[in-house]
Amino acid sequence: MNELATRAGNDIKQMAEILSTFPEPSKWTQKQKEQAIEFAALLDTAQKVIAAKNIAGINYSGEKETFLSNAGRTQSEHTRKAYRAGLERLDAWAAAQGINPLEMTPAQSDDFIYSLRGRSAASIRLDAAAASSFFTWIHRRHNAIDNPFRGSKARPAKKPVKEVDPPQAAAEIETIIRELPASLAAAAAIMAYRGLRAGALPTLSIAGGKFTGYSKGKPIQGKLPPEALAAIKAASLPLRGPFAGVLPNTLEKQIARAIKKLYQAGKVKAAYSAHDLRHYYAITEYRKDRDIRRVSKLLGHASIQITQNYLEGLGEVE
To answer: Are 128 and 155 in contact (CB under 8 A)?
Structure first.
């Protein structure tokens, strides 16, 4: 590879010297036009040789592991696992095609995405996001690598998100907590009165009215309001791990099913989801003083802009 690069470099230098003697393009002879075409082909070959040399020096497996261990969004264990699975699918597809992933073209990235059809649209978008995030990251470390997934139209379009309809009054929350089975009522109280995600509940540990745990892979802590503590006590749940071993998805489905029954019985105005309880908390806190920064901190958002968008979606800000 070094010999090829050296020879190409010498040829380019020689051809460039010849071209420097040419008149303006409109006055080129047929022979000069042929020499210019030859030079362009030589330059293209040289660029490919140099790119191949740069790519050959990249430890793909090592870079991938570094990305999964350190890149921003992959700090969430759930995201890390999802991204790893997506990149493994990319590697398997590239191997079947006889392609080096680092040399993929935009057309090949589209073909990879098309090959995922049969899986859910959300799963396909997640795999494409994993690949795109990795290529963007590695481009910063090795500028010979471009991101072939950037701008791809092959990703399935997102369907319109359902209209958010959180509980409208404290009385509805009180009804939900009073009517739900005790353990579900405790979970609902934590989400409605402290705004924690269902995914954080299995990691919670409570002492002295304060909680610690993890939400989206990040440590969280704070004080639980009396209503939430009372619901945990009423359910006779241990404070050190009231929801240990419970799967968040299972918990969300159980709460949604229980609230749907209340809706069918005419006890609440809508079949609210578990996440609607967090929406209720966000609205309640924001209306206290309209302080987005404070609400952002309470919700554990990564930025004020996320909270701004969140509240916009709830119809609280414009």
So the answer is: yes
What's the pLDDT score for residue 225? 94
The Cα angle at residue 68 between residues 66 and 70, in degrees rounded to 5:
65
C-alpha of 4 from chain center: 42
**Can you tell me the distance from the alpha carbon of 2 to that of 201, in angstroms, rounded to the nearest whole number?**
57
Contact status, residue 109 vs residue 131, Cβ threshold 8 Å:
yes
From the list 244, 221, 220, the residue with the least C-alpha distance to 232 is 244
Containing 144, the helix (H) or strand (E) segment is none
Residues ≥6 apart with Cβ < 8 Å to 110: 152, 153, 154
- 296 contact partners, CB below 8 Å, separation of at least 6: 303, 304, 306, 307
CA 9 to CA 188: how far, in whole Å?
Answer: 69
Q: Can you tell me whether residue 205 is helix, strand or coil? A: strand
Dihedral sign, Cα of residue 27, residue 31, residue 37, residue 40: negative
What per-residue confidence (pLDDT) applies to 172?
Answer: 92
- Give the H or E element holding residue 58: none
From the list 248, 235, 234, 250, the residue with the least C-alpha distance to 203 is 248
Query: Tens of pLDDT along 172-231?
Result: 999 999 999 999 999 999 999 999 999 999 999 999 999 999 998 889 999 999 999 999
pLDDT of residue 16: 66
Burial class (CB within 10 angstroms; exposed 0-12, middle 13-18, buried 19+) of 23: exposed
Backbone φ and ψ of 134, nearest 5°: -65, -45
Distance CA 125, CA 155 (A): 6
Residues of the chain with pLDDT under 50: 1, 4, 74, 160-162
Distance CA 195, CA 197 (A): 7
Stated as kind and residue range, the H or E segment containing 150 is none
